[in-house]
Write a structure and sequence with these properties.
Two copies of one chain form a homodimer. Helices cover 45% and strands 22% of the residues of chain A. Chain A has 151 residues and is α+β, with helices and mostly antiparallel strands. The first copy, chain A, is elongated and about 70 Å long. Chain A binds a DNA duplex (30 and 30 nucleotides) through strand 1 and strand 2.
DNA sequence: GGTCATTACTCAACATATAGGGTTTTTGCT
DNA sequence: AGCAAAAACCCTATATGTTGAGTAATGACC
């Protein structure tokens, strides 16, 4: 393990601990050349997740697709890119933690909607309108009324 | 190390290799419960990088600031978010690999400009105009002429 | 300035990982 | 399809990491 201070290739482990959930190992290392210490993390390679679309077709999970959907819904809305990325991070991690190798696209949509609802209701309705394929003004109104009623 | 398939906490190492540059270790593990195999990476915790601004003030490195600058320069330009994130990734890694704990903000600006120049010249000039604080139309024209001359 | 939580540090008994060489399979590319 | 590169696999001798417990230092928050 290369020392981040001097570049030496060899280092030894001084301490090693499991993270709370056991999903990673934190090691404290010491460079054999300069003696400086540093921390490393051993993490599981993220396994390829497959998204099952409504028509039954499958494609590999792509976080950028989620982000793009959010970007569209949040255009001109006061939602920062960082916040959106945070949501995508949360969702990605949630799916990874679920131990499932397949997710229905609906499930992802619901997750995004839950988060958006808390962040910006306009963005939420926009997203839902695309996502739930609101076909007429009526269903759009119903959703708006539901939001208003909850207030 | 938690098994990504069944969630069991214990696993054993079956194989372990250094990455080419020694900056990480790839391990092949086998779950003690379900017997499935998976890959892990041990990586150095990224050390806090300090950016030294032109006036000498220091603040911690923030990749979002770089991304924001690029987003502004690339508005309405055919540069994908993914491409911009790729540039930021490259720059972050370049700095991490340099083993320096401090970078001048100018250096970061130059890196961004190099990349942008290859991707989209309009975005490049926009970025440079902010970055180099072009004070008048003249210097802007000079930069444009330089680009044209290079063609 | 005090408190809680997280990270750092040290020690000792025990077990499991490493390095390196070689083979096979998978994946990405044209 | 056909090549090259990367990843997975398997082996053996050797030494290095792991675990638990307790203490100390550091950072975030009020």
């Amino acid at each position: 393990m290369k020392c981040p201070y001097c570049g030496e290739q060899d280092s030894k482990v001084v301490d090693s601990r499991h993270s709370e959930d056991g999903s990673s190992i934190r090691r404290r290392r010491e460079c054999l050349l300069c003696g400086k210490r540093f921390t490393t993390y051993e993490i599981v390679e993220s396994l390829p997740i497959v998204v099952v679309k409504r028509d039954g077709s499958r494609q590999s999970f792509d976080r950028n697709k989620i982000l793009n959907g959010m970007l569209r819904a949040c255009e001109k809305r006061p939602v920062s890119l960082a916040a959106m990325e945070g949501v995508v991070d949360d969702i990605e991690q949630y799916i990874q933690n679920s131990l499932e190798r397949e997710v229905r696209s609906e499930e992802i949509g619901e997750l995004v909607m839950d988060k958006l609802k808390q962040m910006d209701e306009v963005a939420y309705v926009r997203f839902a309108s695309v996502y739930r394929s609101f076909t007429d003004v009526n269903s759009f109104m119903q959703e708006l009324n539901k939001i208003l009623a909850e207030k």
